[in-house]
Design a protein that fits this description.
Structural class: mainly beta
Number of domains: 1
CATH architecture: Single Sheet
Largest sheet: 5 strands, antiparallel
Oligomer: single chain
Number of strands: 5
CATH topology: N-terminal domain of TfIIb
Length: 59
Amino acid sequence: MDKTLLTILACPNCKGSLSYQKVEQELTCPICRVAYPIRDDIPVMLIDEARVLATNEEI
């Protein structure tokens, strides 16, 4: 994930900053507790495509 792109992207729901999870290939929002998938090196920033993080998952 390009670090410049990561600084530009924001959660489409709350506009908060995102964290890159390399192993899972996801961008996570600690405020909304959701993860947006990265497919073919392209972040899918659609609320409908996000998965809700389990309460025991760390960000």
